[in-house]
Design goal:
The chain is an alpha/beta fold. About 40% of the residues lie in helices and about 10% in strands. The protein binds nicotinamide-adenine-dinucleotide.
Length: about 190
């Protein structure tokens, strides 16, 4: 899809033909001919962020992304294996009610959910929390990540290796179904 989109964008600006699949569009499509796109505003949207806690006292990636989403008006389900780390992120969002800049949207709110992204039931609970607390679910930001086991391919612990893959990679698959699921399936 991105390949095709890239081609269209290039063609509309340069009218150079480089992608056979869009060749027929190239000579006739101008930016004003394109259909309306959905709003890219985050105001009123709802996101799940996994790994929304932070190991240290500062900002981990998940906490930072959660705060930025909320600043842009998006409400956030802060999911983390460590409940108190998730709660800290949610508290930071919920106690900061001022827009980040004068013309900015009303900041979003947050709810913390203790969830292990390697468990289907916990992933389902994140989606259910979004709908229960905010009435919708639009965005998944799968930040969760662990370093995984040390060692080489020869001596690495296979069970720990599998656990790392479950956390870092398979979690995207486990959660990807929920944001696109029909609302009555959440
Ligand atoms: N910190 C960096 O400089 C850096 C740079 C590049 C990439 N990254 C990657 O970004 C990701 C986050 O890094 P970070 O530094 O913010 O880490 P962090 O340890 O501060 O945060 C990760 C969070 O994930 C949570 N978590 C771990 N396993 C979980 C599970 N099974 N279910 C739910 N939550 C779980 C932890 O409790 C923690 O709050 C990692 O994948 C990391 O490899 C980090």
């Amino acid at each position: 899809m991105s390949e095709r989109r890239n081609c269209v964008i290039q063609l509309t600006h340069t009218r150079q033909l480089s992608c056979p699949r869009t060749r027929t569009l190239a000579t006739s499509v101008a930016p004003s001919d394109l259909p309306p796109r959905p709003s890219r505003s985050l105001a009123g949207k709802v996101a799940i962020v996994t790994g929304a806690g932070s190991r240290g006292t500062g900002l981990g990636n998940g906490r930072a992304i959660s705060l930025l989403l909320a600043e842009d008006g998006c409400s956030v389900v802060c999911g983390d294996l460590n409940a108190s780390w998730a709660e800290k992120t949610a508290e930071m969002i919920n106690t900061s009610s001022a827009p980040s800049h004068p013309a900015g949207p009303k900041p979003g709110q947050a709810v913390a959910v203790a969830a292990d992204v390697t468990l289907d039931a916990d992933c389902a609970a994140l989606a259910a929390a979004a709908v229960a607390r905010f009435g919708r679910l639009d965005i998944l930001v799968n930040v969760v990540g662990v370093l995984g086991p040390r060692g080489t391919a020869v001596d690495v612990d296979a069970a720990q290796w599998a656990r790392g893959l479950e956390t870092n990679v398979t979690s995207s698959m486990r959660l990807r179904a929920f944001p696109v699921a029909p609302r009555d399936k959440l």
